[in-house]
Amino acid sequence: MAKYILRRLLIFIPMLFIVTIVVFTLATLAPGDPLTGQQLDPTIDPAALEERREALGLNDPPPVQYINWLSEVATGNLGDSLYFSGRTVQDLIWSRLPNTVYLAVFSLFITLVIGLPLGIYAARKQYTAADYFVTTFGFFGLAVPNFFFALLAVYFFSFQLGWFPAQGTQSSASISGLAEFLDRLHHLILPGLTLGLASVAIYMRYIRSEMLDVLSSDFVRTARAKGMTKGTVVYKHTLRNATIPIITLLGFEFGTLVSGAVVTEAVFNFPGIGQLFLTGIQNRDFPLIMGINLLIGVTILVGNLLADIMYAVVDPRIRYD
Amino acid sequence: MSGPSPGSTKQVNTEPPMPEAKEQKKSYSPTKLIVKRFFANKLAVAGVFMFLLVVIFSFSAPLFVEHDPAQTNPLNTYAEPSADHWLGTNSSGQDNFARLVYGGQISLQVGVFIMLIVSVIGVVLGSISGYFGGWIDSIIMRVTDLFLIFPFLLLVLTVVTILQNVNVAILVITLGLIVWPNITRILRGTYLTLREREFIYSARAAGATDLRIIMKHMIPNAIGPIIVNATIIMAQMIILESALSFIGFGIPAPTPSWGAMLNEARSLNILTGMPWAWMPPGIMIVITVLSINFIGDGLRDAFDPKSSRK
Amino acid sequence: MTMSQPVKEPNEKKEILRVQNLKKYFPIKGGVLKRTVGHVKAVDDVSLHIFEGETLGIVGESGSGKSTLGRMMMRLLDPTEGQITFNGVDISTIRQSKIRPLRKDMQMIFQDPYASLNPRMSVGEIIEEPMLIQKTGSSKERQENVISLLERVGLQQEARYKYPHEFSGGQRQRIGIARALSTRPKVIIGDEPVSALDVSVQSQVLNLMEDLQNDFQLTYLFIAHDLSVVKHISDRVAVMYLGRLAEVAPKDDLYANPLHPYTQALISAVPTTDIDEKRERIILQGDLPSPANPPSGCPFHTRCPEAHERCTLERPEMTKMGEEHYVACHLYTQS
Amino acid sequence: MADDVLLEVNQLKTYFYMGGNVAKAVDGVDFTIKKGKTLAIVGESGSGKSMTSLSIMQLVPGPTGKIVDGAVKLSGKDLLKLSDKQMEKVRGNEIGMVFQEPMTSLNPVFTVGTQIKEPLMKHRGLSKSQAFQKGVELLKLVGFPRAEDTMKEFPHQLSGGMRQRVMIAIAMSCDPKLLIADEPTTALDVTIQAQILDLMKKVQKEFDSSILLITHDLGVVAEMADDIIVMYGGQVVEQATRRQLLKTPKHPYTVGCWKVCLA
Amino acid sequence: MNLKKWWSFLLALTFSVLLLAACNGGDDETGTDPEEPADDNGEEPADDENGDDDGDDDTAGEASEGGNVNIAFFSPPEHQFNPIYYTSTYDANVMDFIFEALFRTDDELLLQPHLAESYELNDDQTEMTITLNEGITWHDGEAFTADDVVFTYEMISHPEYTGVRGTYADKLVGYEDFRAGESEEFEGVVAEDDQTVIFRWEESSVTPEFNASFPIIPEHIFGAVEPGEIESHESSIATGEVVGTGPFMLGDFVEGDQYVLNANEDYWNGAPNLDTVTLQVRDQAVITGLLESGDVDMVIQPDGIVPSDVASVEQMDNVTLYQPQDLGYQYMGFKIGYRPSEDVEAGVIDTDNFIENEKLSDVRVRQAIVHALDREAMVGGEDGEGGLLQGSGQVLHAPFPEASWAFDENADIGLEYDTDRAMELLAEAGYEDTNGDGFVEDPNGEEYVLTLAYPTGNEPRENAAIVIEQQLAEVGINVNVDTPREFPAHSEIVENDDQSIDMYLMGWGLASGDPDPGGIFTSHVPYNYTRWVDETSDEMIQRGLSAPDAFEQEYREEVYSEWAEYVSEQVPYAFLWSMINNWAATDRVGGITEDPVTMLKDPHLWYVQE
Questions:
Q1: How many distinct structural domains can be found in chain D?
Q2: Cα dihedral: E136, E139, E144, E148 (round 10)
């Protein structure tokens, strides 16, 4: 296992390297830079802007900029943000990452707690009304764009019913302890549901079909032939096996969640990595874009590695060496 | 009797261990069989029907839409529905109904063309990778890894930013070039299994060239996964285009698209006060994606009866 | 290209196919850098010859390398080492493009009648394909040939418009045979051609193959996993165990006088319906070892009832024990 | 019903409903199994022999498959009239079953021990440690010298033959009156087949149970069976003792089969 | 079995969490109350809604004490809370509470002393002596002195300074040397004593108050920091560390979400009534909803309420709209010339090298284009109906919006919407449809197509592009509208004189108050994106700033009227509209000072009334 992880890392590092070059090239190809603001203020002397460009190294040839960036990364520093003046990229990421993590964890929680049981239930009751309901729900979950859902959710749950706040991460920056936790949770619900919607549908359909597959497998027949109760057959023999493919899905879930977070965070004004990335893109903040890409690349790698490890835990047939 | 419950809309496809199927007296080619199975699936037929409606609705636009979707009228912005403007007008006074209809063309074209690009790349690279294996496979797989490391939307945003002024064609090509790795991997997997099938060996034993094996034996047998994945991609891309438009990175004005129309509802005022402006495009997206997914599901079942209702 | 070897013995029979010291090792990757850490020795130093017009049966259990051997002879797999000589020509190393014309003379029938026919081609296309590839005859001639082949294997000519899924397993195997015959090959390698068929159908297919052998002057290499099927059709039988030959002998000789303990066990496992005959069944202990990690010395020694110390140390060589009867066992070699 | 009859199957009918079609997988089958004896059902694939055994266990794959008629009397008790709960107590307890595919019949994610302990704990009410002990005994009986270690192993660590031994141990764990073996050796290598058949004979003697052996291999039948029925198209086409059938086969199907085996 | 229980447990847990959360939400609304000290009540401040009377300062102390006001805007700040480095207006919103300058604008946009108590100018306006208010302290208790002023100006002139605020200092005596690092002393700003500071300019300053109006940063904090490190110093970015003299101090914040400002009880102008002000970043889609529900008390600059929502906000009983005119404006620029690409490369602006764009060099064509635009329609009716702006704007003919003191309604020649006149002018200039395709050809009979580039990011402006295309088509001008670019990309092609562009849409945001158009319209300045070279105009602009006449505002008003007329006739820009800001506050907040440029003036006077 350790060898396997090591090998994966060895493959990954050069790939990450290539990716940073690609992203950097892409980023520097984009016209404009962080100093061409959204609204021009004629009181700012263009010469001063030019000096600032020089000072920030924006006038260096791209390869020099890249090497500079890389040497900073080598020292564990992701560089200084260009748009958020005076802030380092890692500082920015750390300030936003928790929000995206909460959001992702919560939406994953919703996915697993709603998606999996519904899928299992539908598989057990195949061809019943409940099954059709769940399947249809799954189809809709995949067909409704999540921003559309978000707008509807804000409209109904925040403004009509007043159940959940429509915006932000917490109602006051000054509360702490349990109250803060609950308050944050309260703010997580709508964005979490939005982000989780498609995943719920996907996992539900997936686990349903996996369950159906496993339910018709030989060893389930063996278990029944041993006189095991239906509950044992479904929850012990079938579920464990049906979960295995789900793990791969989970490995890639990090990436999916971050992508989804871009839109979700925008609608709910939820200051996380997705929103930060969008800001970075809109303002040509290359170090920020690269830093986030790097972070997410690493996260996805770790996610996949974790999935592989979980694989080995859940499925004894798999041993990596 | 425990057949399908009343009112069920699904064909029962579970194949029990059975004596050789006796009902097949007539001679059907595999394609005809698939078509037959497909049309026996009520949901799939409903999907086809819905999809055709959307297509007809969108592409017969010149026949019944009086307004030019791009024609602005600053004197008549945010108009309510009227006999002239069935769905009112938007913030530049453009006719919402015309935009809905013509927007359908754009959304569908985006979906279809990306699907075509991705399928072609996927089939070509998947074939090469899955059939030849070896170093070429390694290279292709590492490249797909590269793409898969990054969240798709972030990559799209980065690229769209560089291309600055995006039009439909550029957007389609860009998305196509970004989306291909997924389908390539899936098809590679299909080819890997196919490669070990005995009829491939028998073709090789007969002296068939690699090209012939790929064209005559591999691709026709991978057509199921190819088509099914193509429908999935198409549905995903229609949603993606609307999401991109929503965050302002999609197809720019004045080209109408459903996503752009929804983006105009990004104000509570419009959301609550002008449902006619955003409900129709929202519903159209849902209907279109839903119908494509129904079709995709039906195709999957038709191609592979054992995978019923996954 | 190496020179063809002069045919020595027996003089009246002509060797059509010969393999010498043939090996196929599949690498096992491992370690951090995925280096090759070992090999699965699927076929390990096998030498064989087949005479024109005869049927050589190759028998072995799973993992014995019999299918790998067959595929190597067809050059569907490239040998790791050793020579394959067809009609005096060394075909073991020539390029794939040069092999193509040779395919005309060698064809293969596969085990699984469901997997060996392309489900998306009509039967006519399937049978025609080898001719098309080999560019034999005009379109019309090929069609006629398809019809005659179909009739020859006992199918109606309308079958050519149908698709494989419309046929039963036995019928499909007939289609597979018709395809193999379409280029008038000299040698047909049958890789367990009847194993997947129902017993009653097996005999029909075997009978057909025998008839065709006479009609077309075919040479068969017939691979099977048990002796009962091979007994029916073979002239000589080779027994494989873990990538190596255990015993090769003319059929009658082998059944009457099996020398290798493994052969003896296999023969005893052939069911008999003579319920009055009280036969001592030899039940081998233990499982087949993995070909990735074969036992030292004689690969069979872990299960051999007669094994002695030498068997664990030294690999037995093929020893000639009679007319065309060879065995690799220390019981028959002087130490 | 005679005293020595363990299982009596009367007019068993199992149909499959697909779309508008009805497939009669088992179409009015009658037979009896005597105590301590072996009955073999022989037939081609699709003849309904496997479906018959699954019908006895009421494991017909639903919802398309359905036992529509008949009676399955085990020691006089009609299994088809039992509730699901009652039937669970019969399966694995009064009837053990071994399937064809040793590679897929064991759950890959549980140890051999877990799978062998399950029926012991359910039907015999043994504690975990008791079940473990009993499991070890059973494994030793079916030929695992290092049974304690084997208990902790996963199915994929065992070869096909060993798995089939585990299956037999599981099937015999609760000392069933009847062992149904559905093509138990078909997927195995020749030399391993011999081992398994040998083991089945040994187990039958040890537990004094009856065996319902389902196979297409007449060699196996000749070796194992006391009585034989031949099925074709869901119906019994010939019924005889071993001697009768082997010496004087009547049905054309049987005759055809013989030609291959005896060739 | 176990697993089944586990699932049910999880399900139960989820529902209870959801329930709890929902309950918590309910508590929340009432929950904020206990935090506030029991109001002793809001009787006194009652009718004082228009706290714009300066005289109210004294009564402010009697207004109800405590409470919190939530203020919303659309985008998160950049988190650079140091006036010398910030660039975003969102950060400016935060800093408006914290930092103060010597001067600030009054409601007529004239600069009045603020931290300064009084000032004197010498006759040629090259020297200004400023006396500071007494008793001003920084948030950390240190006294505010003239040294802080000197330090601030030294920092924006320092060799290590990389910010963009040098314009405030660059005309001071000795700036060049100091900036170049050749002098340790900065003669331009000198502290006479703790309360007196003297500014000296190389030449007469027409706008001395403006030049002295840069927000002051504390020397006692940043004096110890390497000048190059100030930007990333924690006192520029971190909570609790940002020190100013203003009425509020930066408290806790949730980055990108909300920023709490705590009252500075020692504020020199009087302790704030409120305990806290919370700035919240909120999506524009929901902002009106939040306003209606009372979750947000104020919606402020720079975005305000989007025009399409104004009508519905007006309907709300609890909300008051503040609609001052904005000083910024939107325009369509005509690329009259281009810099050659060598000059672009070298970053040189040399009017002699400009390449003329023949398509637009004829003033009649430019006038025709303006005549063809129905700008009234774009802006929409006064009643908030129709138009791209829903009436939230005014048609503009010269770059002085009505709010500016330089505005003179009679100054411009006012090229009204008149398609006939437009076609006439085109015909005069030789542009006629010779091939009958509906579009005019140029005088040589060649196809005449104008390319219009525009950026994304401002909905009315985006919409205008298509409207312009169609309105110009009406008079026969064929406009090719480029697909929109993001702003940075757009501004780059405009700035770098991409020769495929004939016209572009852009806007100027003018917050400074001084109407001097020189920075934008003088021929050789970089911001002269149209590359309009006109000596007459240059001379007029120069005149508007020439000492000593320009010391008198009336003189400048005259000059700018004259210039406005000239510009409106020469049309380097087709001026489109100036915006009307739509700011709003709920009636819960009292004491708001109305001001044309900000909602955030004197927040210490705000109070909460229930």
A1: 1
A2: -150
Instruction: Please indicate if any CB of chain E lies within 8 Å of the CB of B77.
Output: yes
Which numeric CATH code is attached to B101-296? Answer: 1.10.3720.10
Residues of chain E contacting residue A169, judged by C-beta atoms under 8 Å apart: 254, 257
| Whether the Cβ atoms of residue A270 and residue A193 lie closer than 8 Å to each other | no
β partners of residue C40 = C26
**Interacting residues of B176 by C-beta distance below 8 A, sequence separation 6+:** B113, B114, B117, B118, B121
Check C111 against B198: CB less than 8 A apart: yes
Q: Which chains touch D (3 or more CB pairs under 8 A)?
A: A, B, C
Tokens of A4: 């396997």
Q: Where are the beta strands (DSSP E) in chain D?
A: 5-18, 21-34, 38-42, 65-74, 77-78, 95-98, 178-182, 210-215, 227-232, 235-241
pLDDT in tens, chain C (335 residues): 344 444 444 456 788 999 999 999 988 876 666 677 788 888 988 999 999 999 999 998 888 889 899 999 888 888 999 999 998 888 888 887 788 888 888 899 988 888 889 888 899 999 999 999 888 888 999 999 999 999 999 898 888 888 888 888 889 999 999 999 998 999 999 998 888 887 778 888 888 999 999 888 999 999 998 788 888 789 999 999 998 999 999 988 998 889 999 999 888 877 666 666 666 778 888 888 888 888 888 889 888 888 888 888 888 888 888 888 999 998 887 65
Residues of chain D neighbouring B308 (CB-CB closer than 8 A): none
| Torsion (CA) C203, C208, C211, C212 in degrees, nearest 10 | -140
* C288: chain D residues, CB-CB within 8 Å: 159, 189, 191-192
Considering its fold, how many domains does chain A have in total?
1
> What topology is assigned to E2-325+582-608 in CATH?
D-Maltodextrin-Binding Protein; domain 2 (3.40.190)
Nearest to D64 among B16, B19, B20 (CB): B16
The reply to whether residue B74 touches residue E374, judged by beta carbons under 8 angstroms, is yes
3-state secondary structure at position E143: strand
- Tokens 């090209």 belong to B211
Which two structure tokens, joined as six digits, stand for B151?
């969240």
Task: Give which of C244, C250, C277, C275 is closest to C262, Cα–Cα.
Answer: C244
Binary contact (A40, E527; C-beta < 8 A)? yes
Domain span holding position A200: 89-314
A59 domain-assigned: no
Name the residue among D63, D108, D119 with its Cβ closest to that of A226: D119
In contact, D226 and D241? CB cutoff 8 Å: yes
Task: Give the pTM.
Answer: 0.80
Domain CATH for A133: 1.10.3720.10
Joined together, the tokens standing for residue E533 give 């070279």
CATH number of the domain that D151 lies in? 3.40.50.300
Which domains are assigned to chain C?
Answer: 15-30+38-105+185-332 (3.40.50.300)
Homologous superfamily (CATH) of E329-579 is: Dipeptide-binding Protein; Domain 3 (3.10.105.10)
Domain ranges of chain E: 2-325+582-608, 329-579
Q: Structural domain boundaries of chain B?
A: 101-296
The complex's ipTM works out to 0.78
> Given CB atoms, is B27 within the 8 Å cutoff of chain C?
yes
Is B109 in a helix, a strand, or coil?
helix
Strand, coil or helix: A249: helix
Query: C232 vs D246: CB contact, 8 Å cut-off?
Result: no
- The parent domain of residue D193 ranges over 5-262
| Residue C103 near residue B205 (C-beta atoms within 8 A) | yes
Which residue's structure tokens are 């064609």? B169
Structural domain contains residue A68: no
For chain A, positions 81-110, list CB contacts with chain E under 8 A. Answer: 83-88, 95-96, 109-110
The Cα D39–Cα A229 span in angstroms is 29
Domain assignment present for residue A4? The answer is: no
